[in-house]
Amino acid sequence: MLTNITNRDKKRERTICLYIFCYHKRKLKKYVNKQMSTSTTFCTLLQPSCIFAKNCRNLCYKRSCNCYSFSYCMMAINTQNSTFLPLQEKVVHKNTTARVIELVILSLLVSLLIYRIVYFNDQGHYFPWILALLCESMFTFTWILVMSTKWNQCSTKTYPERLLNSVNESEFPAVDVFVTTADAILEPAIITMNTVLSLLAVDFPSNKLSLYLSDDGCSPLTYYSLIETIKFAKVWVPFCKKYNVQVRAPFRYFTPESTPLKDDSLEFQQEWKKMKNEYGDLYKKIEFASQRPIPCDRNSDFADFYNVHRSDHPTIIKIISENKEGSPNDLPHVIYISREKSSKHHHHYKAGAMNVLTRVSGVMTNSPLMLNLDCDMYANNPQVFIHAMCMFFSFKNEEDAGFIQFPQAFYNGLKDDPFGNQLANFYYLANGISGIQGTFYAGSNCFHRRKVIYGSYPNDKLKTDKKDLHKIFGNSFELQESAAEILSSSNSKIESQRRPSSFIEAAIRVAGCSYEYGTMWGTQVGWMYGSTTEDVLTGLTIHGRGYRSVICTPDPPAFLGCAPTTYTSANTQQKRWAMGLLEILFTDKSPILLTIKGNLWFRQSLAYLWLSSWAIRSFFELIYAALLSYCIITGSHFLPKVNEPAFVIPGGIFVIYNLYVLWEFRRINLSFRMWWNLQRMGRVTAMTAYTFAFVTVVLKLFGLSNIVFEVTQKGESNDDEDTSGRFVYDTSPVIVPGVAILLVSLTALVSGMSRLGEVGFGEMVCSVWMILCFWEYLKGIFGNGKYRIPTSTIWKAGALALFFVQLCRRWS
Ligand SMILES: O=c1ccn([C@@H]2O[C@H](COP(=O)(O)OP(=O)(O)O[C@H]3O[C@H](CO)[C@@H](O)[C@H](O)[C@H]3O)[C@@H](O)[C@H]2O)c(=O)[nH]1
Ligand SMILES: [Mn+2]
Fold first, then answer.
1. Looking at the domain assignment, is residue 717 inside a domain?
2. Assembly ipTM
């Protein structure tokens, strides 16, 4: 790419690196401004041999300083020569105000702990005092984790328009794209098919693209829909490319209101109408097929689906489309896979599906890069592959970009996020972790290097003996061969010239449900088993080997998916996440172990610790909330009284923290309403879904419970318009603790009202705040029809609440 580097350049580059190495930040800036062209643009110069470069990189990482953009042995150049322009840049965000406020909050939290210890003997309520100390220690610890994670804010910017100036399209590495679906009802086929269409139509040479659809539902409907979709894709993809359509998922492109613009050419208008009709036909076909069982006659194409049960059937692999000539203008390879399932073998949910996809594609196309997507995550930006290539080509050192993650964003987000599940508040955490070892793997929208997924360590050339490959990858000869190829060669060299159809038998073998026995799939290679958030666990393992990761945030957003739109499905998802994240702490890949034994950075480990402790923290939140009511009911107290000077400590934390979060929200243009919703749902979810997750994981550790991956509903719920964003409840026990704590708080408040002189002011205020947070539940208790919390739930919660109140009375 950077061919015309002269010796003088090289020398200069060394000088700079030496300079960075010796003098660091401020002086360097001066030097750059003085010596280099005024347009101080830097390019990533690839001189791995340069020892100064290496040292300087390490230094920059350690300090996470502003000279971050020099991390790759940088060199200042003139903007005129675009060959030398960087393909991506790290942008460091200034963060001083936030840091100051965070430190203030931290010092208040620490003061509170000190207050508890110093005044321990001077008050008469030892029991609440100790509990409070415990909870507050936990909150302080959490705050330290959050602060450490958010401390260095940065993001990256990619320049796709520069890519083709420095890299020839023929040098692009091939990419295997994986889409997973598991249930044709919860995940309507039309949504999955739109994801497929958007991917087939991206701006990328199609002979370097292969698409694999994994169907854990073993549904003939999905297979049928895929066949029909590929027929449509033959006209849709050329249309998108010819007119440079921006949104290439037809269901988002053809909204009922959309029409071509008047000043579009006549030809375009005609083709547009034709395309809209064709998509309409496809939609109707799939809709029609979904309403009745698909006949799977023994001698039809659907024979493989004859009499299958989704959890007990042989492997089905079908090649729907094959680009035989390897032409960049044909459709990519499209392959349908439904892996073997049997009740005797654990299938490991999505992680299992991903490993089958990895192996099947390893045998069939063996592309060095893999992109994986949930079935609802369509490519919203047709240039996403180009953005990914910018990252790929600018990080020549694999260690620096173990995987390339695009953020999870949603197209159907309800206004102001009433259920608090759209992850908008992750903005600062995501930017913070980018400033450490790199973003978490989020399960979808991520480009992985096959080599890294195969368990390689940074910079290690194939150390494994070829004879040992079967112990790692299993006894498929084809897979061993292809894995050896990946592990030994440099990434972009591998060209996918294979024809999938010649490897069907080998592929069926590696998709079998007993294939993994005695191999390292799920423990050392592939997607990791042992947690329902296999994504975070897998990313953690990669970071643990010393890789960094990068986040790429193009505009418009790269991929968009469905966020749950009902309260119950949002709850299911939150519960599954909290469970899976907590499970991670109890695996042999827990962040603490990986820092001690592996190469996980210390602060990265703190970030993982924050993430995996959601459920534990919720337990402490629940205790704290119960403590409030306990104190009011029994007339004791654990917060300082208003007339005590120490009152400013909790008061200060409460006010400053809430204002701080509100300020953060306003800075990224989120509404006041959104802030309130997220802060209130933070409390509600902690005391419902997360508490439930905590209990489930504890039970699992004692072998008393099983954890399953419950798939979330995609697409619009069937309900009518006016339920949108409103709380509709089912009989699931998840919300029982939430309702119980609300009832307890109400009881406490009422009993406190009658004895205002006796009870603490702080406790009363907090109780009122709690009730405001649970306002929706309060409406649910008195609501009507589907907006009412089921009576059985209220009874259960009532019994719990009564029990608690009686306990309080007895202990007081
Ligand atoms: O047995 C299974 C279960 C699920 N899936 C697929 O897994 C994906 C994610 O499932 P979903 O119900 O959408 O879960 P979410 O909570 O929305 O997913 C987020 O959280 C998951 C667990 O952390 C990650 O795997 C996902 O990538 C991430 O988007 C979907 O494509 C499913 O089809 C399977 O293939 N097989
Ligand atoms: Mn999802």
1. no
2. 0.99
